[in-house]
Amino acid sequence: MSFPLSPAQVAQYRRDGFLFPVDVLPREEAANYRAEMESLEQRYGAGSLPQPLSRFFRVNGHVVIPFMSRIARTSKILDVVQSLLGPNLLVWSCELFIKEPGTRKIVSWHQDLTYWGLGETDEQMTAWVALSPATVESGCMRFVAGSHHQPLLPHRETFHKDNLLSRGQEIEVEVEESTASNIVLQPGQMSLHHGRMFHSSGPNLSQDRRIGVAIRYVTPGVRQTVAERDYAMLVRGCDPDRNWINFAPPEEPFGTDSMALYDRILADQSAVLG
Ligand SMILES: O=C(O)CCC(=O)C(=O)O
Predict the structure, then answer these.
(1) Hey, where are the domains in the chain?
(2) Is the pLDDT of residue 167 over 80?
(3) Could you report the per-residue pLDDT of 105-145, keeping only the tens digit for each?
(4) Which of 143, 164, 193, 215 to mutate to test the pocket of ligand 1 (most atoms within 8 A of CB)?
């Protein structure tokens, strides 16, 4: 994959709605990020934070966890995203998707933009960075090429206990599994996908954890249409539109100011995320 993307690669993304694999972190750096994540797991056991660490990992981790906001600001990732979204970029959300070895957790077929309150805009994308091998056996993501050309379709909420999505949301049309591509990634590689992409992932039947960081990038022109206000971290260029409350990356894990900001963001986003 070239940096920035070639016109052919840009055309491929526009046609398929996804691109992979893109080498963005040296393997050693991906291993260091994983070690940093696992040391937080050692340090912040049950009851040591106002909410379980897994909740911070899964919702807006970049607000309170420095390593997550550092990954989101990786210049190689930003160069690639800039090839597709232009020079001004903000991070709206950053989430860790972890599947423990030999477990049944899955992600059902869904379109991300259904639950974000950002409308049907094309001015966003997710970079999913692997911190461990994402293989068919470990439950890598699956994408249906071209499905982002469809509008947002109705979803049902299953609240299934093995679904990693907060409401177990699932698209209400039959997805033809044979048309999906397996998004196999090695640690340090990423995939990109559009927010209307039909995507899912299966259980982790491997011996290792499957760990990915999903970073949601938007352009300044994108607006929150459901919540009264919303927040984003400016990571490249400038934000002339001021649709977002900008904030700085955290300097330490779970610092007082960033924890207060975290609570404000969750309260404001509760109208959208439930
Ligand atoms: O990590 C997964 O298996 C699913 C992630 C996902 O749905 C997303 O990043 O939008």
Answers:
(1) 7-267
(2) yes
(3) 999 999 999 989 999 999 999 999 999 999 999 999 999 99
(4) 164
Q: In what order do the strands lie in the sheet with 210-218?
A: 18-23, 189-193, 124-130, 210-218, 89-99, 231-236, 245-246
pLDDT for position 3: 65
- Distance of CA 240 from the midpoint of ligand 1 (Å): 30
CA 118 vs. chain centroid, Å, equals 15
Instruction: State in Å: Cα 250 to ligand 1 middle.
Output: 24
Judge: domain 7-267, CATH 3.40.50.10470.
no
Encode pLDDT of 194-214 as tens digits: 999 999 999 999 999 999 999
Burial category of 160 from C-beta neighbours within 10 Å (exposed 0-12, middle 13-18, buried 19 and up): middle
Q: What pLDDT, in 10s, does the model give residues 171-187? A: 998 899 999 999 999 99
- Ligand 1 atom 1: residue of nearest CA: 97
Using alpha carbons, select from 94, 143, 148 the residue that is nearest to residue 122: 148
Q: Which two tokens stand for residue 219?
A: 């352009």
